[in-house]
UniProtKB/TrEMBL annotation:
This is Transglutaminase domain protein. It comes from the Bacteria. Keywords: Membrane, Transmembrane, Transmembrane helix. Residues 409-471 form the Transglutaminase-like domain. It comes from Sediminispirochaeta smaragdinae (strain DSM 11293 / JCM 15392 / SEBR 4228). InterPro entries: Ig-like_fold, Ig_E-set, IPT_dom, Papain-like_cys_pep_sf, Transglutaminase-like. Pfam families: TIG, Transglut_core. The chain crosses the membrane at residues 12-34. The keyword Translocase does not apply.
Length: 553
């Protein structure tokens, strides 16, 4: 028997036991620490719509023990301690307070606040009227189905909708979840319309409409508006199987911008069309009021205004000045990655926002190969979008000097915010993820602003997810101050210092097919046309004045 070998093994195992024991203790400590430091998370509330006095069941995880730091907040209201019937790690049951409104439900403990799910007070749900209020006014008889997430196709039946849509709209309820609750309660701007650029309108006739639930919709009444008036309201329950989107922080702005046309030289009768972008209503831009000097010929055509100029004096400067007051909201998303659905590849939205063109060369072999390498192991479209974001941030370094084109930016490894945004959108589309660029301004310092570009990608049953690759990569430019951990924040979130003037590339047709067309590639609104002028015009000067922040609050 080899006693030396046995003794060696005994000594080895004796020495190893304390190490194993120490590692086990460390693992146990880490498990306990991580578990105890995780914020609460809500998975569901039942029922999502109820009357005060009913029982509300909140299911989720990491609720912890019921102590002095633990509470539930419903639409800004904190129930009394006696309202709680039970509180456990994964479930809370309580009585809905009498004075509660409609709003988000949060669970808070000493680790922080949870995500918020929307609760609706049933007393706020409008009653269905029998027949239109007045002859010719639209009337909704039914909505089918009565519940579903963003993107759900619904059929609205009734009367007096009109045989063509024209200026008609379908409006859903909107709830921002803004933290400054008192100010939010004062808002009358509480609806969001179905979007033409998202292809939400499927068909429209006098007695039946087919639309998709728009991005940003909340549970509540749905109404139809036409030039004859507004219909009655019928409740629709918007569900959130993929995650939640909030607009928690609001900032008010007064801004001014415009276009100057001068030194027009022509040989004979001449005219021009100037397509000026408007501050358009969206989930993140609301309460909009504007003054236009002079008034445009068309106030809103696909998000732009049309000005017609003629009878030129070569010594006159023609100023098209725009002043707006509005509220801008930050955007925060919380995605349940395992619930992200695959795309409906036959939908108009998917086909439009995965298409390749000269500006977004998604079918370029360089981008298709890169997208395939980076996204092939992703378990969901959300994970693929994140992988492409991380890849781009590793490839590029921010530079104020623009690249020649989007491929040149990636190959050279340098670009400005326009290059970052276009490269990200191109990679997403190459991977089969609907995406579009967003153009506008970023506000910083003491009411300073500069042109800026970012992006957004689409998730089924959720809507658009904002991404700012340039800021996420730590863009340093002048007095632009980055928030903590910009790389994670600007994937899926956006602050309220972004002001957008175009989402996607606005496709316009020339008012005069014979006119010459001018498009500016890096304008603060991405459009197929910015100016068009008759062939009799020999020369002119155009200045697109950047946005000035007149005031904020």
């Amino acid at each position: 028997m080899n006693f030396k070998k046995s003794a060696h093994h005994l000594i080895f195992h004796s020495a190893l036991l304390p190490v194993v024991f120490l590692l086990a203790l460390i693992a146990l400590f880490l498990q306990v620490y991580l578990h105890s430091s995780v914020k609460p998370a809500i998975e569901s509330i039942e029922p999502a719509a109820a009357l005060p006095g009913a029982l509300l069941t909140i299911s989720g995880s990491h609720f912890g023990n019921f102590d002095r730091d633990s509470e539930v907040i419903i639409a800004g209201i904190r129930p009394t301690r006696s309202a709680y019937k039970s509180w456990s790690e994964n479930q809370i049951i309580l009585i809905i307070p009498e004075d509660v409104g409609s709003g988000r439900v949060f669970v808070k403990n000493d680790k922080g606040a949870s995500n918020g799910l929307l609760f609706t007070n049933k007393s706020h749900i409008p009653l269905v009227l029998e027949g239109p209020v007045e002859p010719g006014v639209p009337y909704i008889d039914s909505i089918s189905p009565e519940t579903g997430p963003v993107g759900t196709e619904i059929t609205i039946r009734g009367m007096n909708f009109g045989f063509e849509r024209q200026e008609g709209e379908v409006l859903f309820q909107f709830f921002s979840g803004a933290e400054n609750e008192k100010r939010e309660e004062e808002r009358t701007d509480t609806t969001i319309a179905c979007s033409s650029i998202d292809f939400d309108y499927l068909s429209w006739n006098d007695q039946e409409l087919r639309v998709r639930v728009p991005d940003g919709a909340s549970p509540g009444g749905v109404v139809v508006t036409t030039d004859r008036g507004e219909s009655n309201s019928i409740y629709f329950e918007v569900t959130n199987p993929v995650g939640t989107k909030r607009y928690p922080r609001m900032k008010g702005y007064q801004v001014a911008y415009g276009v100057e046309i001068s030194q027009v030289r022509s040989s004979g009768q001449a005219s021009m069309e100037i397509w000026v972008p408007a501050i358009s209503k969206s989930c993140a831009q609301r309460g909009i009021e504007g003054i236009h000097e002079p008034e445009p010929l068309w106030r809103d055509y696909r998000g732009v205004m049309r000005y017609h100029l003629s009878d030129f004096d070569p010594w006159t400067t023609y100023r098209l000045e725009q002043t707006y007051w509005f509220d801008r909201y930050s955007i925060e998303t919380d995605i349940h990655e395992r619930s992200v659905a695959t795309y409906d590849r036959e939908s108009s939205l998917f086909r439009r926002y995965t298409a390749s063109n000269v500006i977004i060369p998604a079918d370029d072999e360089f981008f298709t190969a890169a997208a395939s390498r980076q996204a092939r192991r992703a378990a969901s479209p959300w994970a693929a979008a994140r992988a492409l974001y991380d890849y781009l941030l590793e490839k590029l370094t921010y530079s104020r000097a623009p690249a020649k084109n989007v491929r040149d930016a990636v190959e050279q490894g340098r670009g400005d915010s326009y290059d970052y945004a276009m490269a990200y959108v191109t990679l997403c589309r190459a991977a089969g993820i609907p995406a579009r660029p967003v153009a506008g301004f970023i506000v910083y310092g003491d009411k300073k602003s500069r042109r800026h570009y970012w992006a957004e990608f689409y998730l089924e049953k959720f809507g658009w997810v904002p991404v700012d690759p340039a800021l996420g990569d730590g863009m340093q430019s002048g007095e632009v101050v980055l928030i903590d951990n910009p790389r994670d924040y600007y994937f899926g979130n956006l602050d309220n210092q972004h002001i957008d003037l175009s989402r996607g590339i606005i496709e316009l047709r020339p008012a005069d097919p014979q006119a010459r067309v001018v498009r500016y590639e890096r304008n603060y609104s991405l459009q197929s046309i910015h100016e068009e002028y008759s062939r009799s015009i020999e020369s002119y000067r155009a200045v697109w004045k950047d946005m000035e922040v007149v005031g904020w609050w």
